[in-house]
Amino acid sequence: MNEYYLTQSIKSLTLFKQTGDVEHFNDAEYFFKRLKLELRLNEKYQKIEKLKKPTSGN
Questions:
Q1: What's the number of domains the chain is made of?
Q2: What is residue 3's DSSP assignment?
Q3: Can you tell me whether residue 35 is helix, strand or coil?
Q4: Domain that holds residue 18
Q5: Which of 17, 24, 31, 51 could disulfide-pair with 8, CB 3.0 to 4.6 Å?
Q6: pLDDT tens for each residue of 38-50
Q7: What is the pTM (predicted TM-score) of this model?
Q8: Distance CA 46, CA 58 (A)
Q9: d(CA 11, CA 4)
Q10: Superkingdom of this entry's organism (predicted)?
C-alpha cells in the first residue's frame, strides 16, 4: 500500500510540474499525507507485536 501512495504522489507532482494545475499539487499532498499515516500505523503495529511476544528467561 505504501508503494501506491508514493507512486501516486510522484505522478501528481509530475503532472503539477507539467501543467501548473494546483489540483495535482493538492492530490500529491493528499497521497503524501496518506503515506505518512500508513508508515506511522505500521510502526505502531510493530511496537504492539513486539510487546505481545512473550520474553524468555522467566
A1: 1
A2: H
A3: helix
A4: 1-48
A5: 31
A6: 999 999 999 998 8
A7: 0.75
A8: 23
A9: 10
A10: Bacteria
